[in-house]
Amino acid sequence: MARGSSSFLSPYLVLPFLMGTTLLGLLTPSVYGEKVDYSGYRIVSVVTEDEAQSDWLDQAVENLGLQLLSEVNLRSLPVDILVPPEKFSLFYGQVHDQGLQVEVNNEDVQMQLDNESSSLRPPMRTGAFDHGTYHDLDSINAIINSVESDFPERVSTSVIGTTYEKRPIRLVQVTSGSNINTTRRGMTRKKNKDIIFFDCGIHAREWVSPATCLWILDKLLFTYGQDKTVTNLLDKYDFYIIPVVNPDGYVYSRTKNRFWRKNRKPFGSLLNCIGVDPNRNFEFKFGTKGTNPYPCSDAYPGPKAFSEEETKAYRDIILKLKDRLKLVVTIHAYSQLWMTPYGYDVIKSKHYDEHMRVSKIAVEAIEKVYGTKFKYGPINTIIYPVGGSSVDWVYEKVGIPMSFALELRDLGRYGFLLPSSEIIPTAKETWAGLAALIEAMN
């Protein structure tokens, strides 16, 4: 489907046009549960300068059945594309003939995946949590259980939903303890503080996102009373964190296909396609720009808004808390972007000036930590169109003015395969930006 198209047709009406092109290219072994071997695959980065070039690249990727790792855009941002060995010469030649800027970022993806696998440490078995590695879902759940046990007056956890594959979607609530009264019957809140809400891991392959949420959780718990910023913020707000919104996809990305993006719900016996992009499944401008009606596409938004257990759980908890929500931030990777509404079109929100003011403060705080530079602005302006996103839904439908989306490190050198050595630096600078944002909010 061409970039920016808003038509939403039944995939069965267009099936004859897909056979032998995009659809067959997308029906990789990962769909059927076999582990994908990326030996000889390359990651190619292409820059387009205008709409004609962007449209050409979008069509070329579709015709060859290639996988986009970052979306085709009009912002002169590199577009990262996963290219199998048998299609590399053809694709590279076509891009070169078009006069586009092109660079090979990774000569053998499987080699990098093997290096990544060797750096993963064994699952956590003690209370100490190692932030220097990407943990599996069992380890993430273990740390959630551990902090609830270790900080009974400050932490409570809940299951807000259950996925298609019957995994719990977990929410962690952190308080300073100053608004908790412990009685024989358990914890009873004295007062309701405003809430700061973070969610991570809505896209399966973005591993640094859950890792960052876990580091922030650790920061809030272990430095309260020592770190002035943490103490002040926790005395004023409660923090609610979903470390992994899409646990089925996250597990699949670790066990079968490292580049899996969607959830794992099957769609269509005829197409044998699996998964919906949860961040296209929200009920605001659903099925419009930045989505694809073909169930095998990474940008498939689902048959209808809130069709997925992950987004229904997200919707229900946000609506339950809406009167207390001060800030909602969804954390993604990669591209180093601090983004605001809107995603669905190039339209300024009524809070645009305030969004720009606090975003500037946030990205300046990030840069002060390690020199990492973030761009900031509305989603549609600085990256690409997105219909049915959580950011727009929270802002427009729930009415929370402070709704943001982050794209963490890096700019594409490693992309989704960000080395584990960069987890802690990424988390530290992200927290610096978030803390500065919260302090700057009116």
Low-confidence runs (pLDDT<50, min 5 residues)?
1-29
CATH hierarchy: architecture of the largest domain: 3-Layer(aba) Sandwich
Give the distance, in angstroms, between the N- and C-terminal Cα atoms: 42 Å
Order of helices and strands: HHEHEEHEHHEEEEEHHEHEEHEEHEHHEH
User: Beta-strand percentage?
Assistant: 15-25%
SS-based class: alpha/beta
What is the average per-residue confidence, as pLDDT, rounded to a whole number? Answer: 89
Number of helices: 14
Taken together, the total number of domains comes to: 2
Examine the coordinates and then state which fold CATH places here, giving the name of the CATH topology of the largest domain: Aminopeptidase
Give the tally of β-strands.
Answer: 16
**Spatial order of strands in the largest sheet:** 5-6-10-9-13-16-14-15
Fourth-level CATH superfamily of the largest domain: Zn peptidases
Largest sheet: 8 strands, mixed
Query: Which percent range fits the helix content?
Result: 25-40%
User: What is the overall shape?
Assistant: globular
Give Rg in angstroms.
21 Å
CATH class of the largest domain: Alpha Beta
Domain Peptidase M14: 133-441
Cofactor: Zn(2+)
GO molecular function, one term: metallocarboxypeptidase activity
Signal peptide: 1-33
